[in-house]
Amino acid sequence: MSTPPRRTLRSQAWFGGDSKDSFIHRSWMKNNGLPNDAFDGRPVIGICNTFSELTPCNAHFRGLVEHIKAGVLEAGGLPLEFPVFSCGESNLRPTAMLFRNLASMDVEESIRGNPMDGVVLMAGCDKTTPSLLMGAASCDLPTILISGGPMLNGKFRGMDIGSGTDVWKFSEDVRAGVMSRDDFMAAENAMSRSPGHCMTMGTASTMASMAESLGVTLPGNAAYPAVDAHRARLARLTGRRIVAMVHEDLRLSQVLTKKAFANAIRMNAAIGGSTNAVVHLLAIAGRVGVNLTLDCWDHFGRDVPTLVNLMPSGQYLMEDFCYAGGIPAVMQELSDVLDLDVLTVTGRNLGEAIAGARNYNPDVIRPRGNPLLAHGGIAVLRGNLAPNGAILKPSAASPELMRHRGRAVVFNSIEDYKARVDDPALDIDESCVMVLQNCGPKGYPGMAEVGNMALPKKLLERGVRDMVRISDARMSGTAFGTVVLHAAPEAAVGGPIALVRDGDAIELDVEARRLHVDVSDDELARRKAAWSAPAPAMKGGYQSLYVERVLQADRGADLDFLVGCRGHDVPRESH
Ligand code: FES
Ligand code: MG
């Protein structure tokens, strides 16, 4: 492809000319050792780094960024790295999701306020991918994303073990008395044995796969392990490519189209991806002005089979997925249902970008004729318990519970649940439906990953491993079970889930997409009249802003004033 004639780039509004201000912009930058020609009009590439030692999944980014910089320099650009809020899943309290929107604000304002012509987003741990894409989408410069890559497979006493997924199993085994504490600690060492993010098809790998499916990464981005030399090479090629994207003025909004989101939703079904992708894609679409609704998830994904045999839906891990061919191989299997004409950051359409990809392991990436699950996707449920929708991931659920009627056992907070779940006197059996209230966006706050409540100990000891659970919360992408999530409106705003009481009959019918509490409208109205909102957890600070302005789950749980693209013009001088 020939390079279009050079245009005057955005960064020249800072670095070009002979004014007092241009002196200031250039001179201070030169304290890094930059020569005069660094400011000659070449593309200035911001590299948005979510490195943090408190985000262990992204702690190797100091090394990875050097490969991106090398690529930018090779292509004739000027790389300038900048840090943003790093949303680390494993440590942040009360939940990393509370800070996804905060991080996106940091990203947006850092990009818009600074002299850059294009952006490389360095994502890894769960929330880092959506927060970077949301912020960048609100600016709409040429943008490309690279993931830090998954960890190598966990290896424990001859078994492959997966991040998160096996933690749930091990911790239930400890509670059920079949695993010792020493073995539990040994498993910790064995699970996380290289740099990188979770190597199950949890939220991090799902969001890396979503980014690749949306076309905002180079092909192959999602699956290469963090420590594979392919990852470093991809970083270098990503650095080269963003410089060309600036010359082509290939902006994020040209890639993030409705068709691209439809592809991503279909791919989420095919990979057995995390339920968290629902709120993240809705929020990203909102930033770029694409009309994506919760129902799009059911509509586009419903008939797509799950092909990727990875935990938590299946058996394998990301390293296996990489060697099997990764996302491009899945796209080849699904080429008849994907829109291959969409433009990607490669400058070519999706079909061209994945040409030649092959499936090298039909057990890891199942062929269409032998899927892991005939109907993957996300089921969007409605009914008097969730008028604005709730979701369930069929591939992680138990087939025998997909149609179920049971007696509600209600917990009004996660603390209430923890205090009572193992009480031998708790009136519960495996036919009951566990209901958790006040864990939604405003209620927790931040919509915590607590929807997959562990089962009562007395039932675990009897060998029960799944029950219907319903909440306004999220669940970890590495979790599994017949778990209804994201019920909207949430309990903390008086949604019907707040009105459920012990003993109410609840009906779940996934095939019919129905979620119903068998209580009359009059009785629900009486309960609503007696309901009062819970007191906010914190007064002032970001949490108050969040609780005041956060949208419900069916709108992606973004802050209302952040929806939309505000562009990248900065009309005023800084001095
Ligand atoms: Fe970071 Fe799972 S905790 S990706
Ligand atoms: Mg998580």
TrEMBL record:
Quote the EC number. Answer: 4.2.1.9
Alphabetized, the UniProt keywords read: Iron, Iron-sulfur, Lyase, Metal-binding
The reply to whether Lyase figures as a keyword in the UniProt entry is: yes
The family database entries (InterPro entries) matched by this protein are listed as: Dihydro-acid_dehy_C, ILV_EDD_C, ILV_EDD_N, IlvD/EDD_N, Sugar_Degrad_Dehydratases
The domain of life is: Bacteria
Occurrences of domain Dihydroxy-acid/6-phosphogluconate dehydratase C-terminal (ranges)? 363-557
Entry similarity comment: Belongs to the IlvD/Edd family.
Q: What is this protein called?
A: Dihydroxy-acid dehydratase
State the organism of origin. Answer: Alsobacter soli
